Amino acid sequence: MNQVQDGISWIAVWILAIVEGLTEFLPVSSTGHMILASSIMGWKQTPLLELFEVFIQLGAILAVLSLYYRRFLVGPRIYLKLIVAFLPTGVIGYLAYDTIKAYLFNPVTVSLSLLLGGVILVLLDRWSDRESSKFVSVEDMPYPSLLGVGFIQCISMIPGISRAAATILGGVAVGLNRVLAAELSFLLALPTMFAATGYDLFKQYRHIPSDAWPMLLSGAAIAFVVALLAVKVFVQFVQHYGFKHFGYYRILIGLLFLALYTQGTLRLN
After folding, report:
1. Cα separation, 147 vs 23, whole angstroms
2. What are the sequence ranges of the domains in the chain?
3. Which residue, of 59, 62, 147, 228, has the greatest Cβ tally within 10 A?
4. Which residues are 9's β-sheet partners?
């Protein structure tokens, strides 16, 4: 396989793109999975690899936008609602960005976060076992409820917690049923991920070598297709089976990676 720099190959980018597409909108932590995948494969968290991980998120974002674009054509209310929900994450994320990147992006944090989030999802599944919703749609939610969801979403800045899981937890906490809570997590992903990805790209775009663009674009395209399928399947799965299976998966993979780390298989990059 041709390599660009720092040992990053086409196959590495494709693997990361598939992992990103599968996990970005599921409550299992895409960031955590990419950190763990990179660690298992022995890829060091170089600026170039981090840039690839950020860039392929654009493909996943566009997947959700293509599914829900009609919601953004009916009027400005949805924009105002999502902006309010995004504000806590935007402000706190901007202030804590460097600290989080420096101290929390490692396999140990991810493994423990996966375990904790798994237990919460299993408990949440029992708590959210209702068909009715306090609100008809995201547009119907009052601003204080959306702001509350935004503050709960802030805990997803810890790698392994999962933005989707935190947002779903917040949605259920303010009265949404499972399906609407999942939908809110998709919609709120757009401003949150656009801001986070845009900020990362702004800081790192100078590191993009000229011959890396084909890899970046192919990775984003793969993430787009995989995320498109993952979102459609996720809504149907949650409607019939709830969140507990994602919780069991998180507990299992968290224990597995923690064991691998203690044996020296996983390394801090």
Report:
1. 25
2. 10-262
3. 59
4. 3
